[in-house]
Specification:
mainly alpha; about 260 residues; about 55% helix; 3-stranded mixed beta sheet; single chain; 13 helices
Length: about 260
Amino acid sequence: AAYSCGLKLPGRARPKLDGLGAAALTEAVLRKVVTRGLLDPLRRLFREFHEEIDDFLPAMVEATAAIPESQTPAIRSVSELFSLPSLRVLGSDQSVCVPIAADPLTLCIGEDLFLAASEAERFFLVTRAVVVAKHGLILLVRAAPERVLLVLHAMFSVVRPGHAVQVANEREQRSVTRELAKRLPPPRRTQLQPLLSDLLAAEDFSTRRLAAASYEFGSRVSLAISGDLPAASDGLLRLRGNPPEELPEEERLRLLRADP
């Protein structure tokens, strides 16, 4: 833990921890690292109704062209680990590593972030994003939290006419509700209602917190695969716009404690 925070311990060699590799993707391990709560019903909703709502949840980051030379050993290792026939890597001006499409699986990664990161950091961050994608949570993490909330309430308005909730853009919510009503015939609405009722009735429901929980789950699985805690912490610091090589020990500790 000390080495992962950038601390050097005199007289002690840097420890090496072995990850579980592909074994971390088995159901027995995933059950131990999954974040409990509302993620499971939300994941089921997105998986079962992806076709109907995909258009309404665009990526909030703007992707540029594919990153030149992006097929590094780390990217190839991730593709092999998940048996991906294709893993597209698009660039961005923002410091992100987010899945934005499922078929083919496409990630949007900050170009400066990608070029500055080590291969170990790339492996951790890309694996983290792929885990989130593979568990049906692309729509949750790629769209703005406010947009996800608007679409969920619009869906609820379709299955329960008269449902009303204050949102930032009421005109847009009415427009989305009308379009969703055309896409959701009565049988589909019957399937949708219990999933939405469980979600929106929860006191702690927050699309922002759920997106963070998705990435927390991805981080746990990615770290279980690699076992490389220093690369994980450095990658997360870099993702938040803090180049770890430029940070003094005290600042690294403060940032990791403030946003674990």
